[in-house]
Amino acid sequence: MATMTIAKAINEGLRATLTKNPKSLLMGEDIGHLGGVYRVTDGLIKEFGDDRVLDTPLAESGIVGTAIGLALRGYSPVCEIQFDGFVYPAFNQITTQLAKIHARSLGKLTVPVVIRIPYGGGIGSIEHHSESPEALFAHTAGLRIISPSNAHDAYWMIQKAVECKDPVIFFEP
Hints:
173 residues; alpha/beta
């Protein structure tokens, strides 16, 4: 059995998702050519192109707002927020729009958006790099909150998150 990190397992899970689902796409700051801050998306732009692995502007609310629009048009967007503390500018879109569209439409609309967020301490950074906002989202009806504890779970959980019709916040330790 191969041993791999959680980051590599998520990369492989995203690769499998992009291969299986032509309507899936990845979006976030520096996730394309750089491969993301933690290199979770490393190599995916070369394989799937910049129309499926999109580098976005530095605007978390814009990333999530765009993902909501894409999901309403039939896509399966997977957003990356670089650090957990950077999610706060998108908090309104996540808690008052993304989490509520299904209920507000009486079940007629789904928004299958996955938001990947690395979280927790341990990287030695200061302000906005080592927070744990998961409790804020766990108390919001309409969201699914998940976090893998090992690489095996990470590989399968990211794929199942993208297949889910509900919005999923995928916290990456």
